[in-house]
Purine operon repressor, PurR (Salimicrobium flavidum), 273 residues
Amino acid sequence: MKRSKRLVSMTRFIMERPCTLISLPFFAEQFDSAKSSISEDLTIIDERFRQEGTGYLESIAGASGGVKYIPAYSKDYGTPFVEQLCEKLSDTERLLPGGYLFMSDILGDPHTVDTIGKMFASVFVDREIDAVMTVATKGIPLAYAVAAHLNVPVVIARRDPKVTEGSTVSINYVSGSTRKIQTMVLTKRSLEAGSRVCIIDDFMKAGGTINGMKSLLKEFEAEVAGIGVLAEAEDEEEERVVDDYVSLTQILHADDRTKKIEVEPGNLLNRLS
């Protein structure tokens, strides 16, 4: 196989398996090429990833070593996407009562959700995440996108237990927006004790739902290794109960009565190099 064709095939294979160790002998056998040639190919791919700001190849030495594709999107690469997302969210037609925004179209667009997953994965990729957690239902596509780029499973907390999930653990928490006592459940088979978990949600005001997920994880003796939200907004009536988080966008002002809305990039871009 010519190098040009081999490079295309290797790049596709690597990007489809982020954070997965792939050995040089595997590539050598797959493409019937010498290890020295494969090593040169990987150097070319790594250089291109770094130039584009889309990640890099991490090399692991030794008999059981190989390379891993690490999704690490640069600030220059991610800024245009985040700015475009802010522009979409600034459409006054999205305004809903209570200062919320209609985001179902964004959460239903596979390409947009995949890119959001890459952005969050870039921030959390070095935190040794074991699982990504969200609460049903709107955060589910985001959680799966992030998990796909971190190569970890998804854990979904629900409001009501499902018979098909077996035994569950439940907690009561105070919703930050409604100040109502709500219930959150998670199946006992979801997590192992000591797991490092990344919490992902679509929207956060006071942070009551995320705080509920943190409390639920304590019941599993799991550790919160990161928190990411697509959009954050201030709650004028309640003080925020979550402080260590990453946001893709920030809603500075949203008033459905005056039809005014202001959205700017969140703090995620500042976490990228």
Observations:
- The radius of gyration is 21 Å.
